[in-house]
Amino acid sequence: MFCGDLVLYFPVISYGRFLLLFHVLGSPPPPVVCSRPPEVLNAFFRPGRIVYIPLDVVTYLCVPGFVKDSGNDRAVCQTLGHWEHASLRCKRQQCPAPGAPQDGSVRYTEVTYQSVARFSCDEGHRLHGANESECLASGAWSAPLPVCENVTCPYPEIPRLGRLDFYQPREGNVSTYRDVVRYGCNLNYALIGNETATCRANGTWSHVPECRDVKCQRPAEIANGYMSFAPYRKYNYKEVVTYGCNPPYALVGSRSSYCDKDGDWTPKPLCQAPCHVPTPKANVLHNGRKTRVDEISRQQIQHGDVITYYCKNKTEKCAHSVPSRCHNGNFTVPACYKKPGLLHLLSSDPSTMTPCPQETQQRGV
User: Fold this and answer.
1) Confidence band of 352 (pLDDT split at 50, 70, 90)
2) Distance between CA 64 and CA 46 in Å, rounded?
3) Any idea what the Cα angle at residue 253 is, between residues 249 and 254, rounded to 5°?
4) Comparison of pLDDT for 315 and 288, the residue scoring more
5) Which pLDDT score is estimated for 3?
6) 320-356 core/surface letters (b: 16 or more CB in 10 A; e: else)
7) How many CB atoms lie within 10 A of CB 34?
8) Any long-range contacts for 105-112 (C-beta under 8 Å, 24+ apart)?
9) What is the value of pTM for the model shown?
């Protein structure tokens, strides 16, 4: 009966009294156990239990997206109730370097787990595919490399009363970025705007010009000149009239003028007056040869013509040249020129004197 009573009694005594009873009776103490194994950064362990006893072993594994870098991946429960720590180190999974698409570029800072690579295309190209890709736990990228396709423009619009003078389409009757077309207008119509258009990066043409019916009134006469036959009527775009000057005036500017796209005539020429040279006895350089002024017809030169005078340098005993140009009837004799007089008959003519050193250097002598 005692033994049976003892069995019925034990379940209700406290754990502390139970230990004391075993101590009194000379029984061994309860076994040593280890607490939960220590955590390892970016890793987990197996097997998972509530209680671990000495010599129990747990194995550490890197969490998805991380791989073993170095260290021991096992930990053992020691007889004193503590763990022999695992030294495992886990590093992020690495993906291969992503390439850049042709005619494009890629941007990224790292190529490890959860890193993102972003793709873009050069100007004039359009991205086909994902514009970004993430490095996965498997070591692969989440999306394939995209493709940069050429931007294309449709068949260009043709202006009313106009035409395409130059157009070289590609396969599919399209144009690609920076392709150029050139426009023209029907006869007597003026093209307003740029005659060329360019395929832009957004897939549209830069512009479409306008063909406009332009008329000009009869052009005006010019002073001291005349105009070719020009009846009093309206003139079409790019119709031309020509001008000339009455003798002895010289024509300056283009001889022709045409009706421009703004409805006015292009600049007309001018008739500029000749000049009288008031130094008949001066030896000068004119039209590449030495001559006296009074040997020039009527002592007169045309607008724009140049007469070069010779002047003395008394200190150096040499001569230097000074040019003077005719400008619409105005001519100025250089101040250094001296009219020949009685006293000058005894001195040397500057035109026959040795050129001054600076003058020689300028002539390349």
Assistant:
1) confident
2) 15
3) 115
4) 288
5) 35
6) bbeebebebeebebbeebeeeeeeeeeeeebbebebb
7) 22
8) 111/135
9) 0.56
